[in-house]
Write a structure and sequence with these properties.
By secondary structure, the chain is an all-alpha fold. It is 77% helix and 0% strand. The protein has helices spanning 3-10, 14-25, 31-43, 47-60, 65-77, 81-94, 100-114.
C-alpha cells in the first residue's frame, strides 16, 4: 500500500517519500515502488539515482506509464529533449486514446520546446 508515500509526494515531502520507498525496496519488487523512488530522488535533485530507479522500473515493467512519464520529465529537466520524446512516443503507443501520463509529458515537452 503506497497511500502514505503518495501523500508525502503530493505534499512535496520528497525526503520522507524517498526514505519510505528505500525501505520498501528491501522487501518488495514492484515497478510502482521503483518509479516513485525515482520521482522522489529527481525532486531532491539526484538525477543519477533517479535515472537508475526509473530504468529499474522499466526493466521490471517496460510498459509502466508512470516511469515513462517521469523519465521523460527527467530528460526534459536535464536538457535531453530527444530522449524525452522517445518516452512520449512510447506513451502514445501505450495510450492511443490518451492518458494522464501522456498528457502531462506532452505538456512538459511543449513548454520545454518554447524555451
Amino acid at each position: 500500500d503506497l497511500t502514505a508515500v503518495r501523500a508525502d509526494i503530493k505534499a512535496k515531502n520528497s525526503t520522507a517519500a524517498r526514505d519510505a520507498l528505500l525501505k520498501l525496496t528491501a522487501t518488495h519488487e514492484h515497478a510502482d515502488i521503483y518509479s516513485l523512488l525515482g520521482f522522489s530522488l529527481r525532486k531532491l535533485g539526484d538525477y543519477g539515482q533517479a535515472l537508475t530507479w526509473y530504468k529499474k522500473a522499466l526493466d521490471y515493467d517496460p510498459f509502466h506509464r508512470g516511469a515513462h512519464e517521469y523519465l521523460g520529465e527527467l530528460y526534459i529537466e536535464t536538457g535531453q529533449l530527444p530522449k524525452a520524446e522517445e518516452h512520449l512516443a512510447m506513451l502514445v503507443k501505450l495510450c492511443p486514446n490518451g492518458c494522464e501520463e501522456r498528457e502531462d509529458l506532452e505538456r512538459e515537452l511543449a513548454a520545454a520546446r518554447k524555451k
